[in-house]
Design a protein that fits this description.
heterodimer, A: 101 residues, mainly alpha, Histone, subunit A, two-stranded antiparallel sheet, 2 strands, 37% helix, B: alpha/beta
Chain lengths: 101, 478
């Protein structure tokens, strides 16, 4: 399974990762090797087999819709890199054109 | 001190032969003496441990584990105590709540003595992927302790704590237990609440104990298992009496050896120790052909779930943030700086396997293999009550030996992964040492919810094997 540098850049963008060229080359090789191994299962004829997402079948786990104690805003924000007025503060949301982006 | 079990320590404190304070002080001294060589701990909780010991000695805390020190893998949250998951991205994070498993153990009297090292976000089989440097094997400090719960396995092997907690997604308790010559147990999926366990692959992760004896594993398991409304995948079924199962023996138990886990991939010395350990059990053989694909399925499913779970580490709410002009760039820089290479590799692999055009060929196909593995187990458990295999294909490998080759590292989990895919309970017990003196582990697997049977059979094998080797580091016999 050949993974190209462009594949790596595309997936890195989806995964919010930011690689330099050396990393792009290394991940192209590593992912190619691993997917080569995994491709054995891509070739199996399993059309009649149901997929399993979870090992134990539990359905409709309900709880009463009642108020319970929870974290205070101060506790929830205590670990925030930046906070303001009981909110998490982040840089501007609209993307800024960056050199090399 | 290092030879004492949790059961023996709790008994001597109850009977007044020693105090919890003396026990905690002795273990802190042992950590001080040898953890520079092993590096099992990321943080030693000496102050709080001594406070809790005082409470036990004052009679304010009672319970089956009253006064017993326990080491906690640093993937489990304890309120107000730094939790790193072996990663730089959680720098400075202090969880606002405590994991249910840890809370229940503390309520049973156990005393958390430290947070242990691990592969970053539990991704790895050697503890070399920790951002804080590797843990070394107490049996030979040139070798890895296994992983990802290598710190917790090494802490018990080195006598730093009689018992510890790990998490097992593809073998991360059983494989390091095997490599460190201790007992390590993964419960049925859903038996132990995952509330407060930082998620790696949510459909596979399960918390479990390390110990010197099967009885201690049962005591720790019993203290933390059972339904928890804070985890929607927590099972409502009764836990039964796992400790009472010790000593029930193996009369009528049909043992089966899985041929796919006993072939050429197993090192000859491991295979020989395995064969010798199960002699006299009258074990049959069973072929489970889907196991040939279990490793591939796991290394698609686990990274796929991880890529989704680890999306939360984005520099917004906790942990590291590398500033940038806009939020997307901030997230990318934070994740680039905060995650190590193996975590990035798994996120990339998982994101790729879930991406448009590849979802069905990889992730969908892996989920179908997962069905086949569960069906194969179901078929095998019609004829056998307990399935057996070596825990790890090899004994401990050298530091650095597999870091350059991700696939070679992944093969460490060959024998342990099927139990995670099917959600069944499994345990590793020491079965001998190889010619270099490195421990070999034996794995027992039981059907879902049959922990009592698993503990009963493991305890009987433990007695028959009579493993009594000790790592030189603990001052025991060489």
């Amino acid at each position: 399974m050949a993974i190209t540098p462009d594949d790596v850049r595309h997936v890195a963008k989806l995964a919010r990762l930011d690689f330099d060229e050396a990393e792009v080359a290394r991940f192209a090789k590593d992912l190619g090797d691993i997917l080569e191994h995994a491709s054995k299962i891509a070739e199996l004829d399993l059309a009649d087999v149901e997929p399993t997402a979870h090992p134990i079948k539990l359905e409709n786990v309900w709880r009463p819709d009642e108020l319970r104690p929870s974290l205070t805003p101060e506790q929830a924000l205590a670990n925030a890199p930046a906070a303001e007025e009981q909110k998490f503060r982040v840089p501007r949301i609209l993307e800024v054109e960056e050199v090399g982006e | 001190m290092s030879a004492s079990t949790a059961a023996a320590i709790a008994r001597s404190i109850r009977e007044g032969q020693t105090t919890a304070t003396e026990v905690v002080e002795a273990h802190l001294a042992e950590i001080e003496r040898t953890d520079g060589d092993v590096r099992a701990f990321l943080e030693v909780l000496g102050g709080t441990a001594l406070e809790q010991a005082k409470a036990v000695d004052a009679g304010e805390v009672t319970g089956p584990l009253a006064g017993v020190p326990i080491a906690i893998k640093d993937v489990l949250c304890m309120e107000g105590i730094a939790t790193t998951c072996g990663s730089k991205i959680l720098e400075g994070w202090r969880p606002p709540y405590t994991a249910t498993a840890v809370r229940r153990l503390v309520e049973a009297g156990a005393i958390p003595i430290g947070k242990t090292n691990m592969d970053e976000f539990a991704m790895g089989s050697s503890t070399e992927n920790s951002a804080f440097g590797p843990t070394l094997n107490p049996w030979s400090t040139g070798h890895v302790p296994g992983g990802s719960s290598g710190g917790s396995a090494a802490a018990v092997a080195a006598g730093h704590a009689p018992v510890s907690l790990g998490s097992d997604t593809g073998g991360s308790i059983r494989q390091p237990a095997s490599l460190c010559g201790v007992v390590g147990m993964k419960p049925t999926y859903g038996r132990v609440s995952r509330y407060g366990l930082v998620a790696f692959a949510s459909s596979l992760d399960q918390i479990g104990p390390f110990s010197h004896t099967v009885e201690d594993a049962a005591i720790v398991y019993a203290a933390m298992a059972g339904h928890d409304p804070m985890d929607s995948t927590s099972l409502p079924e009764s836990v039964g009496d796992p400790v009472g199962a010790i000593g029930r023996g193996i009369e009528g138990i049909r043992f089966g050896v899985v041929t796919e886990l006993a072939g050429d991939a197993i090192e000859p010395e491991v295979a020989a120790a395995f064969a010798s350990a199960i002699e006299g059990l009258g074990a049959g053989e069973v072929s489970l052909p889907s196991f040939d694909h279990a490793l591939s399925a796991y290394y698609l499913i686990a990274p796929a779930e991880a890529s989704s779970n680890l999306a939360r580490f984005d520099g917004v709410r906790y942990g590291l943030r590398i500033d940038a002009a806009d939020t997307t760039a901030m997230m990318r820089r934070t994740r680039e700086a905060g995650f190590g290479p193996e975590v990035k590799r798994r996120i990339m692999l998982g994101t790729y396997a879930l991406s448009a055009g590849y979802y069905d060929a990889y992730y969908g196909q892996a989920q179908r293999v997962r069905t086949l593995v569960a069906n194969d187990f179901g078929r095998a458990f019609e004829d056998f009550d307990i399935l057996l295999s070596p825990t790890s294909p090899t004994t401990a490998f050298e530091i650095g030996e597999r870091t350059a080759d991700p696939l070679a590292m992944y093969l460490s989990d060959l024998c342990t992964i099927p139990a995670n895919l099917a959600g069944i309970p499994a345990i590793s017990i020491p079965a001998g040492v190889d010619s270099r003196g490195l421990p070999i582990g034996l794995q027992l697997m039981a059907p879902a919810l049959e922990e009592e049977r698993l503990f009963a059979a493991a305890a009987e094998l433990e007695t028959r094997i009579g493993f009594d080797a000790k790592p030189a580091l603990t001052g025991g016999a060489e």
